[in-house]
Automatic annotation (TrEMBL):
NCBIfam families: maleylpyruvate isomerase family mycothiol-dependent enzyme. The keyword Isomerase applies. GO terms for molecular function: isomerase activity. Keywords: Isomerase. Pfam families: MDMPI_C, MDMPI_N. It comes from Streptomyces olivaceiscleroticus. Residues 136-241 form the MDMPI C-terminal domain. This is Maleylpyruvate isomerase family mycothiol-dependent enzyme. Residues 6-124 form the Mycothiol-dependent maleylpyruvate isomerase metal-binding domain.
Amino acid sequence: MQTGLFREVLRGADLKATVPTCPEWTIGELTRHLGGALRWMGTTVRTRAQDMVPDEAVPDFKGPGDDDPAALDAWFGAGAAAAAAALREAGPDARVWTWTDARAAGFWARRAVHETVIHRADAAIAAGAEYRLAPDVAVDTLEEWLEIGAAPQALELRPELRRLLGPGRTLCLHATDIGQGGSRWIIDMTGDRLTWRRAGAGERAAATLSGPLTDVLLVFYRRLPPEHPTVTVQGDRDLFDEWIGLVSW
């Protein structure tokens, strides 16, 4: 579904237009990045790879250029369909390589959805198109990010994130438009690594990002600025800005 929505944005878009949220890419380059990633995930699952698959081992990884939009769209669609077929055939428990401790195909099914969710936002922003996201998908996209950030290897790969740790350093993400009184997530950096939890209405944090769920997600992924009129940041703004500056996908 997410890849179909991405293709809707792609059709009629100027493939040479710069993507403001990924300024090193055009819409065409964004499409090839996402399409290549989906083909790479599909190849990983289809071959039951036990080590990281090199790009050159992925069939038609790079895709066509921008001169034939229909060809780019067809390439993207074929790769997405092949990845979906590989995931369905494997089932969620098939053992495959991942870059986490979750060595199962289900990891890639979830990752493919969320990779597409965020890059669909990039494409929509670049094309001036409307962007909507189902609440359950938005919640899982947010929580996958938090799970990855809380993984033990996160600090090994990004030791600079240790600067975020310290007494009283907590963030709250408050989605005001779902659940009675909204839904909250607490990011706790007071220990020796990041942890997170769903929070009750009365739990507070040093800094809080509040707004509609999709907009909170997009600010969290740095696709919308914290100054966007639909969201607010309350409390320790320096802590929030430090977090946003250091933690990127």
